[in-house]
Design goal:
Elements (H helix, E strand, L loop, with lengths): L1 H12 L12 H52 L9 E2 L5 E2 L22
Antiparallel strand pairs: 1-2
Length: 117
């Protein structure tokens, strides 16, 4: 009984920094973290997965609506390599300046006319 009390007193008197933690196999901690991460990811996919299809459908609809305007913009601009970096003015306008020596712009299309790309 005296030995147990002495060992306990010695353990309490030893600073925490001097005490060494019990040895744990190196793969045990990682596998627990890995399993926890897998569980979290699975739960996330179970909750969010069905909604991802809805998001994809919404993006496809948005792109279908934007496609005509983007095609018109590309027709007006031509090749983007012939432009300087965009410049924002104090009033919020954005300028796209053509580089010196850039070839002539293509002839603008009439309203409603489309370009087959």
């Amino acid at each position: 009984m005296k030995r147990i009390a002495f060992a306990l007193a010695l353990g309490l008197a030893t600073p925490l920094a001097a005490q060494t933690p019990p040895e744990v196999p190196p793969d045990t901690g990682f596998s627990l973290i890995e399993r926890g991460a897998q569980m979290l990811m699975q739960q996330f996919l179970n909750e969010v997965g069905p909604r991802l299809g809805e998001v994809q459908d919404g993006l496809e609809e948005a792109m279908a609506a934007l496609e005509p305007a983007l095609r018109e913009l590309l027709t007006m601009i031509g090749d983007i390599r012939y432009y300087e970096a965009p410049e924002r003015l104090p009033n919020g306008d954005i300028l796209l300046r053509r580089k010196p020596g850039a070839p002539q712009l293509p002839v603008p299309l009439a309203p409603g006319e489309s370009l087959d790309l």
